[in-house]
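Our consortium's second objective concerns turning raw sequence data into structural hypotheses that experimental partners can test. To show how far this objective has progressed, the report includes one record in full. It was chosen at random from the queue rather than selected for favorable results. The single chain below, 195 residues long, was entered without modification.
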Amino acid sequence: MELQRGDLGRELARVAIFAALIVVLGMVTIPLPSGVPITAQTLGVMLAGAVLGPRLGPLSVALVLALTALGLPVLAGGRGGLGVFAGPSAGYLVGWIFGALVIGLIVHGGRITWWRTALGAVVGGILVVYLFGIPVQALVLGVDLGPTALSSLAFLPGDLLKVAAATALTLALRRAYPRAFGAHVAQIPAASRAT
């Protein structure tokens, strides 16, 4: 029983660390007229899914959103409170949870490689987040879906840079500290982790 408590404690610590990382990355913000700022927080979401996997990654995002709902200023620009979930960025926030899940499923669906990590970050961290974010943004702003999707292209260059950063950071962390990925990755021999 003691080992299970230790495992639970380590998992909770990993979730909290990545939630804190997502919050800290919110300090990098570029406001846009659409009401949805460009932030580095999606990099944190990508890293949470890639490192923590499909179970714990979404939990770290959910923790950030729970803190937001409680009114803590943990989102980009120091935003917090329930009103955030009625604003133009609400769909993107919900998309973070599903994005982290998809990233975790792709990255941890086999051996963790650069291509699997990059694919997970693109599919989960961009496509899934946009699929949730764009329709809600269009609805809240009262704008048609097409123009909203077109305006969202402003996020794409930065998101592609975040994919590259998430891929590089995930692989560097896997080599330097495999325990960050959990017991199953930490037990893989170093020779197998090198690719």
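The partners drew two points from this record. DSSP finds eight helices and two strands in the chain. The first helix runs from residue 2 to 25. Both points have been shared with the crystallography group to help prioritize constructs.
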